Hints:
Blueprint: E1 3-7, H1 11-23, E2 29-34, E3 38-40, H2 45-49, E4 59-61, H3 62-68, E5 72-82, E6 87-93, E7 97-100, E8 103-106, E9 110-112, H4 120-123, H5 130-142, E10 146-152, H6 160-176, E11 182-187, H7 192-196, H8 199-211, E12 214-217, E13 222-225, E14 229-232, E15 237-239, E16 242-246, E17 249-251, E18 281-283, H9 296-314, E19 326-331, E20 339-344, E21 352-355, H10 357-374
Parallel strand pairs: 1-2, 1-8, 2-5, 8-18, 10-11, 10-16, 11-12
Antiparallel strand pairs: 3-4, 5-6, 6-7, 9-17, 13-14, 14-15, 19-20, 20-21
Helix pairs in contact: 1-9
The protein binds flavin-adenine dinucleotide.
Amino acid sequence: MANVLILGGGFAGVVAAERLAQQLSAEHNITLVSRSRNFVFYPALVRLAFGKCKKDDVSFDLRHTMMNRRVNFVEAEVAHIDPFERKVNIAHGEVEGKLPYDYLIFALGRRLATERITGFYEHAHHLLNVDKAIKFGKAIEQFREGRAVFGQCLGARLPVPVYETAFALSRLFEERGERDRIRITIVSPDTVESELGAVRAALALTKALDVHQIETLSNFSIGSLTQNSATATSGDVVNFDLLMLIPPLRGSSAAHYMGVTDDDGYIKVDWTMRVIGQERIYAVGDCVSFAGPKLGHMAVRQAEVAATNLAEEIDGHEPVSHYDHEMRLVIDESGSDSIYLHKDIWTDEPATVRQGRFWSWAKRVQQRYWEMSHS
Ligand SMILES: Cc1cc2nc3c(=O)[nH]c(=O)nc-3n(C[C@H](O)[C@H](O)[C@H](O)COP(=O)(O)OP(=O)(O)OC[C@H]3O[C@@H](n4cnc5c(N)ncnc54)[C@H](O)[C@@H]3O)c2cc1C
């Protein structure tokens, strides 16, 4: 009998647990550990902030869902891993002390590195959890005129919610007939093209932004914030009346002492999703060291690959499933300018770009599918 521990109850951890439960016989023990019993569907947090869906629509109870799939659930905070003793140190929660494992899947996502931007905590809204999205929603309700600035900090690697927020705010004021009362600016440490990695997608997006009179400020890397101004590391300053930023993000600190991370704390894995230099440990999702943006569908695919290979390993076989690093994203403009982008990051193949109302609808259907299949 093998004792498999999965750390993290996000897209990566949940899918890894589900796939392992399907592939391993009942004699094996699968346990998922996460700090909260709630799964959060992050792609819907922009809609939550704009009051287009409710708190209950964007999360579900993991314990209940996991139990239905014969996976044990433990609500606890992971402190760090001891790969020599094959134990996970738990800081606090339903269990304390050390949890032993035979095999481990690390899926703890990323950590907010807000300390890198002076004034971030006090002056910026963000969308990295449900409560912050609701708080940002309240600020949107109070915002009547002036300049809204949305953007990414260096190391965020998450452009989608920034563009969706800008489109949503523009539409809100267009519908009220008050669009001329506000100015919307998107700031980025990169350019639109380098964020999306595809010229055609960047052109389509820039055109859609122009239609809504949303301006972009490229190569603007935020260094510090005050109550009404953002200063770039270059010294340039942008003033704002409403600010939402995706903070700098880094790898989970629980992996720090394993000697397996890159400079930003992300875990190095091979194409089977095995952690390089460690036995019996896989890593999946936002926590891994791959190029490009970090997206939910990547976490899902990596979890599927890891679960298949781990099931083979437990049965004494070689890995059979390979991960290909692809980017698939939808930027929901809430209308006919919504954009779908698919690009293989590891090859030089040209990207596929589609545009139309369908993609806005498809994104919502995907959320509904997750809700239905996990509640
Ligand atoms: C606002 C927003 C919008 C997004 N929009 C899109 C989109 O449109 N399309 C898309 O593809 N992707 C989108 N993403 C990205 C996507 O949500 C992530 O790529 C995805 O959530 C990664 O899944 P994960 O399981 O690796 O990490 P997470 O979802 O972050 O899950 C990590 C889990 O580990 C738990 N955890 C972390 N540390 C500990 C600890 N020390 N102890 C115990 N538990 C811990 C967390 O509570 C969480 O349950 C968006 C993200 C955000 C924030």
